[in-house]
Amino acid sequence: MNTKLVAGLAALATLAAVPAFAQTPAPAAGGPMSVDKTTIGALMANPAAKAVLEKDVPGIDQYLDQIKDMTLAQVAPMSQGAIDDAKLKQIQADLDKAK
Fold it and tell me: Which domain holds residue 93?
């Protein structure tokens, strides 16, 4: 597993005590999935999106309790470079294909 990714996700786990960010509600079932608007919890609840996240961000499920109410775009700045703009674009493209 990518050690940079693991380190970034481990850093996110330490943020569990941080106050929650305001959240945009997840889209209705069958609605568009977005790295900007759909929470990680909602993505992981969708089998197609979960497969995308498990492929593009291996190990993300280990930190789901800490980041489930955040979007990938919100998590990215705290991921120590593990989820950068290019990775977000890749994930979004994969989510678009998974619809």
Answer: 3-10+33-98
Which residue type occupies 96? D
Number of domains in the chain: 1
| Three-state SS at 25 | coil
**Position 15 in a domain:** no
17, part of any domain: no
Q: Would you say residue 73 lies in a domain?
A: yes
Mean pLDDT, the chain cut into blocks of 10 residues (99 residues total):
64 53 51 94 97 96 95 96 96 94
CA–CA separation, 59 vs 87, rounded Å?
15
CB atoms inside a 10 Å sphere around CB 4: 12
Rg (CA), the chain: 12
Distance from C-alpha of 76 to C-alpha of 35, rounded to nearest angstrom: 10
